[in-house]
Amino acid sequence: MNLIEEFNAYRSEMNEKIMASDNKVIKRFFNLDTNTYAAGALDVKTKEMIGLACSMVLRCDDCIKYHLGKSYEAGMNKEEIFEVFSIATIIGGSIVIPHLRRAVEYWELLEKEGKKDV
Predict the structure, then answer these.
(1) What is the pLDDT of residue 118?
(2) Which of 3, 14, 52, 59 has its Cβ near the most Cβ atoms within 10 Å?
(3) Under a CB-based contact definition with an 8 Å cutoff, are residues 19 and 27 in contact?
(4) E strand or H helix at 76
(5) How far is residue 106's CA from residue 69's CA, in Å, rounded to a whole number?
(6) DSSP-derived 3-state class of residue 75
(7) Is the pLDDT of residue 117 over 70?
């Protein structure tokens, strides 16, 4: 299992357990998150760019992976991703660089896996 498969499998498994708790607050938060990234005045691609930049500045590797996956699904290309990376690095400073490295690695995996599906 590669890094993408591991991340997605773990996320799915744990989300199922979390939702099985039937906690109203958690369910509402998850729903709010889902609806926030749905198309509206801003398209999904733009929202994912914002989510990715914020995740990088906040230094949340799981969030970065999630938004990279969603950005890939939304049709972003390498040039666009690197512009988001540059914005996040400027805003967050040098402490973002280790997360930038892992983000580049994960993006390359997404591109490699996507080419297999074509």
Answers:
(1) 37
(2) 52
(3) yes
(4) none
(5) 9
(6) coil
(7) no
Cβ burial 16-35 (10 Å sphere, 16+ → b, else e):
eeeeeeeeeeeeeeeeeeee
d(CA 33, CA 8): 17
Contacts with 100 (C-beta within 8 Å, 6 or more apart), sequence order: 56, 85, 88, 89
Joined tokens for residue 45: 């691609």
Q: What's the pLDDT tens digit per position in 53-106? A: 999 999 999 999 999 999 999 999 999 999 999 999 999 999 999 999 999 999
Say if residue 15 is exposed, middle or buried (CB neighbours under 10 Å; 0-12, 13-18, 19+).
Answer: exposed
User: Tens digit of pLDDT for each residue in 86-99?
Assistant: 999 999 999 999 99
